[in-house]
Amino acid sequence: MTRMLVLTSSILAENGQSKALAERFIAQAGSRDGVEVTHRDLVAEQLPHLNLAELGSWQVAEEERSAEQRELASRSDELIEELRDHDVVVLAVPMYNFGIPSQLKAWFDRVMRAGVTFRYTENGPQGLLEGKRAVILAARGGQYAGTEMDTQTPHLKLMLGMMGITEVDTVFAEGLAMGDDTRNAALEEARQAIDGLVERL
Ligand SMILES: Cc1cc2nc3c(=O)[nH]c(=O)nc-3n(C[C@H](O)[C@H](O)[C@H](O)COP(=O)(O)O)c2cc1C
């Protein structure tokens, strides 16, 4: 059984293009034998920004946590448990102001935990999640793939790699704000790329 965790983070509800790509992925992957898909909508989730109280709760030994610290630590614990439990993580990522949505950042802030999903060694950081791969479905108004204006995929790969997830495939849907023809062609190309990718995963 291959378990796939699909994370969506578009704020544009049913108009979200990255979410539409995620739905394509879910439909294609979910129809395959031996594949189980979990979908988590990080916008519906409303994870708050990480703050000192929550960060501090991780640093207290489990048996010594107050009720409030247990509650705070459980957010990160549950998200890490879910990530560990899946073989493939699919990130459907809108570009907002040249960054990833803050909702997705709030997820990374909770799954990237020193001593749990990565650790620092004499030779630098070491990822502690093994045997996983990732897929990025990137939706943007402009066209930046392969240039330094692609401020998202290097950042995402760095964070995934830090946890040990270094096998990453990316599907771009770019130029979505550059007129109907460009947009429709980009979405069709992305849909085909998703179908091909699902075959190979
Ligand atoms: C608040 C906001 C900020 C955006 N910033 C950018 C940007 O910096 N660069 C870009 O190319 N497109 C930008 N766009 C366009 C989105 O990337 C595009 O609409 C894409 O489809 C968003 O993904 P979604 O449809 O899944 O939400 C922005 C859109 C919104 C709503």
CATH homology superfamily: Flavodoxin domain
Major sheet strand order: 2-1-3-6-7
Bound compounds:
flavin mononucleotide
Helix content: 40-55%
Structural category is: alpha/beta
List low-pLDDT spans.
none
Secondary-structure element string: EHEHHHEHEEEHEH
Percent of residues in β-strands: 15-25%
CATH topology: Rossmann fold
CATH class division: Alpha Beta
| Backbone CA Rg | 17 Å
Count of individual domains:
1
Give the number of helices: 7
CATH architecture: 3-Layer(aba) Sandwich
Describe this entry's structure for a reader.
The structure is a single chain. By secondary structure, the chain is an alpha/beta fold. The protein has one domain: Rossmann fold (3-Layer(aba) Sandwich). Helix content is 42%, strand content 21%. It has helices at 17-30, 42-45, 52-58, 67-84, 102-111, 153-162, 180-200; strands at residues 2-8, 35-41, 88-94, 118-121, 124-127, 133-139, 167-173. The chain has a five-stranded parallel β-sheet, with helices on both faces. Helix 1 runs parallel beside helix 7 and helix 3 packs across helix 4 (67-84). The radius of gyration is 17 Å and the shape is globular. The mean pLDDT is 97. Bound molecules: flavin mononucleotide (FMN). Flavin mononucleotide binds next to helix 1.
